[in-house]
Design brief:
Length: about 170
């Protein structure tokens, strides 16, 4: 009788562990590379003729040394660039980040539409539609390469401002 209970509990525990292990893979859409955690890569849907798409993700550095995102490539685009937005006079302009995007120890950079850093997928081979999955390779100076998938999301849903909050809630939901 005791033994029977033991096995029931053991089976229950194994099942719970299996469920916990499976959940991040199906929902969280996160990647780990050494001490770096990459969260929820997504790209904005584009209209036909639009040559480039904005793409976003978060990078958290849990290590003790700084690293840099130095490259993004995807079979869906001719090239990937890491951009930052900055005021030039009275005009907000974007430009490529020199020497890659540094992530300091303990720092988390969360890219989002309309502020700061973002990735541009330049020279799209075809328009990106909501629901598409775009494979890409991120290259870090020290940690090396990691394959990720950019989920293509409707531009309206991913817009800045209050929709940015919605996006954050979805992250917390994970
Ligand atoms: Cu840009």
């Amino acid at each position: 009788m005791k033994l029977h209970h033991f096995f029931q509990r053991a089976a229950g525990a194994a099942l719970a562990t299996a469920l916990l292990a499976a959940a991040p893979l199906s929902q969280a859409h996160e990647y780990k590379l050494g001490q770096l955690e990459i969260g929820h890569p997504y790209a904005r849907a584009t209209v036909p003729g639009q040559p480039a798409a904005g793409a976003y993700l978060s990078i958290e550095n849990k290590g003790a040394t700084a690293d840099r995102l130095v490259g993004v490539s995807s079979p869906a685009a001719k090239s990937g660039e890491i951009h930052t937005m900055a005021m030039e006079g009275n005009v907000m302009k974007m430009r490529e980040v020199d020497g890659g995007l540094e992530v300091k120890p303990g720092q988390k950079i969360a890219m989002q539409p309309g502020n700061g850093y973002h990735i541009m997928l330049m020279g799209l081979s075809k328009p990106l539609q909501a629901g598409d999955k775009v494979p890409a390779t991120l290259t870090f100076e020290k940690a090396g390469k990691v394959e990720v998938t950019f989920n293509v999301e409707d531009g309206k849903a991913a817009a800045a401002g209050k929709d940015g909050m919605k996006d954050m809630k979805e992250h917390m939901h994970h």
